[in-house]
Amino acid sequence: MPDRKCVSHKVLVGLEIHVQLSTKTKMFTGVANASGALKVGQAPPEPNTAVDEQILGLPGTLPVMNKKAVESSIKVGLALGCKIAKFTKWDRKSYYYPDLPKNYQISQYDLPLCYEGLFEMTGADGQPKTVRIRRAHLEEDAGKLLHDAPGGYHIDYSIVDLNRAGTPLLEVVTEPDLSDPKDVSNFGQELQKLVQHLGVSEGQMQLGHMRFEPNINVHITDAEGKVHKTAITEIKNLNSFSVLEKAVAYEVQRQIREWEETGTLGKKATHGWNDDKQETFLQREKEEAHDYRYFPDPDLMPVEVSEEWLTELKGQIGESPTERRLRYASSLNPADASAMAGDRKLGDYFDEIVILGANPKRAANLIINTLAQISNLKKKAIYDLDIPPGRVRDVAELIDENKIAASNALPLFDKLAEAGTAMADSTVELATHLGLIQSSDTGPIDAAIDAMIAQNPKPLQEYRGGKVAALGALTGMVMKQGRGFNAKLVQERLKEKLQ
Question: How many domains does the chain divide into?
Answer without folding.
Answer: 3
